[in-house]
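C-alpha cells help. Consider this.
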Amino acid sequence: MARIESEGLNLKDKVVYINRVAKVVKGGRRFSFSALVVVGDGEGTVGMGKGKASEVPEAIRKAIEQAKKSLIKFPIRDGSIPHRVIGKFGSGIVLMNPAPKGTGIIAGGAVRAVLEVAGIQDIVAKSIRSHNPFNTVKATLNGLSSIKDPNSLMKLRGKVEEEPQEA
C-alpha cells in the first residue's frame, strides 16, 4: 500500500484512549502516559498512532505525528461503506455493515472515533470479542483497508455498470 502524504490534507484528530502506565524502579514507581489517537480528513482517509510520554499533551502530540505517518485511504459511497466488511486484529473483530442514509454511526467507543474522523455518516458496526481500544482500532482500520471499490472491481471483471431500469 502506498504511503499517503499528510501535507495537503485537512486532518482532524480525536483522542481515543489515554492510559497511565507505571514502570517500577528501585526508588518506587515512575508514571508516564500512553495515548491512542486517530486522525482523518473526513473523506475516506484515516490513520492511528500511539504515543507515550511523561505528560499527557506530549503523548498526544507524539501519537498525532505517528498517526499522520500511517494514513490509509478507502472508498466511501453515499456517506457509508460500499459493502459489508469484517476487520480482524489480534483477538479483536469488528463487523461493519453499510446503512441507509439517516441511520447515523451506530458503533461503540473506539470504532465510533475512527469512523467519525474517516467521514462516514451512516454505518452499523459491532465490536466482537476484544474490547481493548488498541486492538479494536487496529481491527477497524484492517477492515476499512480491505474495502474494495465497486467500480474498479467491475472493470477488473470486464463488466459495465448497468443503468437503473425505469418501470
